[in-house]
Specification:
about 80 residues; 4 helices; flat
């Protein structure tokens, strides 16, 4: 995946509320991973010009979007086959 700023996304551990729970993941812009988020940079007194403002995307949300896209494509597969 590519962020709107042009950098790739990377998978990051996001939440684990309880030791018995499975780790949940999210995807974050690699630019934010290297330089810090806007909030982090402001807390450290660093400039925020050219800092990516895209929020982290939970993995469940990406899975939901992918499922919706695949279902949409499957519903129209007869039409897609005709256009080939």
């Amino acid at each position: 995946m590519e962020c709107e700023c042009g950098h790739k996304f990377c998978r990051r551990a996001w939440h684990k509320d309880h030791p018995d729970e499975m780790m949940r993941y999210a995807y974050q812009c690699n630019d934010q991973t290297r330089t810090g988020t806007v909030k982090t940079r402001l807390n450290k007194g660093l400039p925020i010009e050219n800092t990516c403002k895209t929020p982290m995307i939970p993995e469940w949300k990406l899975q939901m979007m992918a499922k919706y896209i695949f279902i949409s494509i499957c519903c129209y597969r007869k039409h897609l086959i005709l256009f080939q």
